[in-house]
Design goal:
With about 140 residues, this protein is α/β, with parallel strands linked by helices. Helices cover about 15% and strands about 15% of the residues. The chain has 3 helices and 8 strands; from the N terminus they run αββαβββββαβ.
């Protein structure tokens, strides 16, 4: 027995290579010929064509972040007594507006209907036609 004739009892384990490139660089596993290797290869994914055909929700970028006002018509203010103060809290108590996200929202009084009582409007937005009707009835707006 000589030293160059000796063999290991457990030889080093060699991992079997798979055919998708191995460790020898790009396409050394012989992949990637055909359509993908040619110039001008720009295949569109099918899902993109499906997405492009779906209807879009227009105007989503320009939606206002300002809180929306609850509309109340002038005719609905007849439930208040004469010379009383109308504010968002009193409108909520009379069930003319509802809470939005747990808080009493802003209020805008619109000009639909008629009013005959003198009311004081506080902390509410008022349209031009509603302002005329309220002031004509003797009320004021703060």
């Amino acid at each position: 027995m000589q030293i160059h004739t000796l063999k290991r009892q457990h030889p080093n384990k060699k991992f079997q290579q798979v055919g998708r490139g191995g460790t020898r660089g790009k396409t050394s596993g012989r992949g990637g010929k055909g359509q993908t290797a040619r110039a001008g290869n720009k295949r569109r994914p099918e899902i993109r064509d499906i997405i492009k055909k779906l209807p879009k929700l227009r105007g989503y970028r320009f939606a206002s972040f300002a809180p929306k006002s609850s509309p109340v018509n002038v005719g609905a203010l007849e439930v208040f007594e004469a010379s009383s103060v109308v504010n968002p809290k009193s409108l909520f108590e009379k069930n003319l507006i509802r809470r939005m996200n747990g808080t009493i929202s802003n209020v805008k009084i619109l000009g639909d209907g008629e009013i005959s009582k003198k009311l004081s409007i506080v902390d509410c937005k008022v349209s031009k036609s509603a302002r005329l009707k309220i002031e004509k009835a003797g009320g004021n707006i703060k």
